[in-house]
Every structure is written in C-alpha cells, then in structure tokens.
Amino acid sequence: MAHQVEFRLSENPWAPTAVVEEVNARTGSGLVLTGLADQVGGTSSAAYVAWPDGREAAMTRTRTKLSTMRQTASVLNDVRSGGLPVPAHQLVLELHDGYVAVVQERLPGRHVDSLDPGTAAAFIAMNNRFAGVLRDHPQVPRPGAFRGGGVFERTVGQLGRRGRRLLERLLEVDGGRPFRMEGDDLVHTDYTPGNVLFDASGNVSGVVDWNSGAARGDRRYALLAMRWGGIGAGEPDQIEAELAQLTPATRRSYEAHWMVDQVHESVVKGFSPERVQADLARAEKVLG
User: With a threshold of 0.85, does the pTM exceed it?
Assistant: First the structure.
C-alpha cells in the first residue's frame, strides 16, 4: 500500500502510517497512530501511538544500528528505575528499509523554543544528574566522535582535499594522537531544548530522543550542542560556566570532535550536498 509522507519537513521525511503498519504486521503489537509531534525539523520527528491497553507512546525512526538501539533501550530502562526521567523503551525493531523503529513511553511535559534563566538552570541540573550513572555499564561506548577505528576517514576523509585537511587539523588539535574521552556519565549527544520536556514549573520532566544511542563519558560534552549547534545560545552565561570547568585543551578537543562529527553525520544520514558543504565550512572555521 502506498503511504503519504507525513513528515515532509523533516531532514529525513518519513511516513509513520507505513511504519506503524509494518511494526504491527511483524509483531502483532496492535499500535494505533494517534498523532504527530509538532516539530517539523530534525531527523527523527516523533509520531504518537497507543498500545491496545491505552498506554501512550512515541515512535521514532533512526539510522543507528539495531544492536546500539537495543543496548540503549536496556541502559535507559535500567537508569530509569533509578529515578531519571528518561522514557522506557518498549519496542526496538529493524524495518525493511534498514531504519530502526523505536517505540517508547510518552513522557509528560512540553518543549520550549529557547531557554530562559530558569529553564536553563533546570536544563543544566538535569544534565548533571547523569554524572557517574554508567559506572556499572562499561559496555556502553564513548560518543561516536571519540570511538576511532577510522570512521571519520570513511566519511569526512572522502570529501576531497578539504575533508582530509580537516582530519589533519583534528589530529593536530589532539597533539598528534586521538583524544580519549574519560568518564562514566550518561551522555546525550543531541542534548538540546527540542529533546527535553519541561513541566509547568519549568522543571525537566523528560529527556527524550536517544536515537543516536546512549553514550558514556563526560556529560559536559553534551552542552556543546547548545554552544555550537545553531539551536540558539539559550542562556549562554550558564552554559559557559559549565563548560569553563573543562581544561582549555579538553574543551578545544571536544569542540573539534563535535564539529567534525557533524560533518560525519551529515554524510552518513545522506543530507544534501549543500548541507554537507555548510557543515564542512563551519568545522573548518572552528578548527582553523
């Protein structure tokens, strides 16, 4: 059956009706599509579904590997039992087109377009609650930007002379050998207001969209998405105060890796040549 593409303005347009149909056909879940999130950008816009018993859930779609998303589901379900407001992951399934469908608990709260001093403080405090929570999960990898294995060479390195020069600059920033991120914090690699829910009092009620996979390392790395992600600086003094805890060398390495990883992700996700070139130019500007 042909399906309308409901999320036309997503960077990866997709049809939740088709995904719900495939999930139900293969698992007998009986999910019912109840609505679409009002976010129109991004790469993993959420659709709202309901289980046969009435439980509300959110469904997303990701290019992250099935094994990574299963590990993420297990880890988040574990830390959720410790009181962290992350969604229970109820179903993870690889679809026929290679994407992975994720059905997760729908948490209460609302998104905010930008951070004011109160929500910025709550945003930072929530990130700090991720400190050390993965001490018992050594199997969770570092953020993709720090995993090595020649990943960047297969994407950024294939962008011609400029791509190769960018990787040379990254190695120079790291003093000639790859930087290793330390720490056992839970790291959300897309920690932006669009992926955080707030209650009526301005407190965080949920941290959602873990579609890049849960990572282990230094939680402060997640704040770079606010400083460099083009989301809007929010309350920059508060974000800056957190990042100022890093040594200059560590911060420089984090920023460099974050920028190169954006180029890598643009290539992996099949973004337009114009988007890839824009991300490449931004990374070149930051790395010098």
Answer: yes
